[in-house]
Amino acid sequence: MKVSLISDNLQKNILFVNHAISSRSQLPILLNFLIEAKEGKLTISATDLEIGIMTETSAKIEKEGAVTLPAKTFVEIMGTILSGKISLETTQEGLVLTGEKEKTVFQTSPAEEFPKLYEERGKQAMTLQKGTVGKDFSKVVFAASIGSERPALSGVLIREEKDGFLLVATDGYRLSLKKQALQDVKKTRAEEDVSMLVPARVIKELIQMEKDGGGEDVKVYAVREKNQIIFVQNETTLVGRLIEAEFPDYEKIIPTDFSTKTILEKESLQKAIKAGYVFARQTSGIIKLAIEKNRVLVSANAPSVGKNLIEVEAKTTGEENEIAFNARYLLDFLSNSTSETISFEMTGPLNPGVFKETSDPSFMHLIMPIRVQESA
Fold first, then answer.
1. Which helix (H) or strand (E) covers residue 263, if one does?
2. What is the pTM of this model?
3. pLDDT (tens digit, 9 = 90+) per residue, 357-366?
């Protein structure tokens, strides 16, 4: 293999591909990038067998070939190289990277040892229009579990409905739901209703891929035989393995009515929660909300440090009430909300609290409360 290309183009691509490298892998080959030079493109691939990422960079190919090399070392070295033209060539020493004033030799392993990201794409299932991914998926993916023993809780449910798509994620303590999502989807396999459980990790990388790709359309391929989903945007491919588990019956826990409803400014509530978290994080992360007619009192108490109370203007209908939540859950929701004002509904201190965006009635976020002692 012998190729030459611009270093800046390669640096940008390998940073994203590196997201598929796991430092905990027991298979040494999975700590490597697969580098392939073919048909005017330099292709970089990585996988941890759960997700795979592949990206192409235009290059001058003098000799085609493929090899693998340590990903961490390659990323670190590329980060030190000045902008300009570089060459990559396989020799008896390994893979030689040559720049204007540097030369680095990487130890390599045969490309044949590297697992394939996928056998074939299959037929295209749909196209996600530019801007759709970040706008809709960002509202739900943060509620999925990280490293759960229940695989279904670590995914995002994507289900086709009459008026769009339903997106749902939950970790058992909170739940995000977006109806009428992905409105600009163009289906290419109209005979199939889409219903799949996609790992949250894959969705997070998809959001980043769309962002890095300048908001271009994303083509989606579902390979049912291999239980894979493949996203393609420009020169980048993201591969994920669908979760084979039954998603929880989430509808059972969504309240059908409420005794208290209050509307308040998101930014004011967010600032109050952040201030309370300074104290809340010293204990169990507990933030209390006291809902009154014209205000919500946000308070936190850490006996060894201190306490605070902040008043947030609100318009409340129904009963005055109190409830406590994990502060981190509140901040996660507020940081992912795009609405200037939000509504909060509850039926009692031990029942789930429901947050909604006044600008988007198709979205809701539910958080389970924390039982606290009156003295707290």
1. strand 260-265
2. 0.89
3. 999 999 999 9
